[in-house]
Amino acid sequence: MTIKLKEEDEIRVRIFKALSDPTRIEIIRILYHTKLEISFGVVGEKCETPKANISYHFRTLKEASLVKTRQEAQTKYVTLNLEVFERYLPGFLNTL
Fold first, then answer.
1. Contacts of 95 (CB under 8 A, 6+ apart)
2. Which of the listed residues 20, 36, 50, 66 has the most CB atoms within 10 Å of its CB?
3. C-beta atoms surrounding 21 within 10 Å
4. pLDDT (tens digit, 9 = 90+) per residue, 49-72?
5. Which residues of the chain have pLDDT under 70?
């Protein structure tokens, strides 16, 4: 039997997969408490995570639409996508 997922369910699956890793939870915590747009490098330093790994984690979070990124010259900046948290995980950020 094949289950056809609704588009909303597919979004939920991506979100929960992205949040299934402790490093990504820590990234979300840092971004939430910082309340500002910060560079990938600063987040990596705070998480004590190597640059190659932090890029992987940010890509996963971005694919789940949990973060927004922008690039300025050689520096990438990231912020939380609060609309997604409010819609799919209301109250989650307050637990961090």
1. none
2. 66
3. 14
4. 887 788 899 999 999 999 999 999
5. 1-5
The 3-class secondary structure across the chain, one letter per residue, is CCCCCCHHHHHHHHHHHHCCCHHHHHHHHHHHHHCCCEEHHHHHHHHCCCHHHHHHHHHHHHHCCCEEEEEECCEEEEEECHHHHHHHCCCCHHHC
Token reading at 42:
């600063």
Residues 44, 56: contact at Cβ < 8 Å? no
Helix axes 40-47, 51-63, angle to 10 degrees: 110
Determine the Cα angle at 66 with ends 50 and 96, to 5°: 75
* Pick from 39, 44, 51: nearest CA to 77: 39
Q: What is the spatial distance between Cα 41 and Cα 47, in angstroms, rounded to a whole number?
A: 10
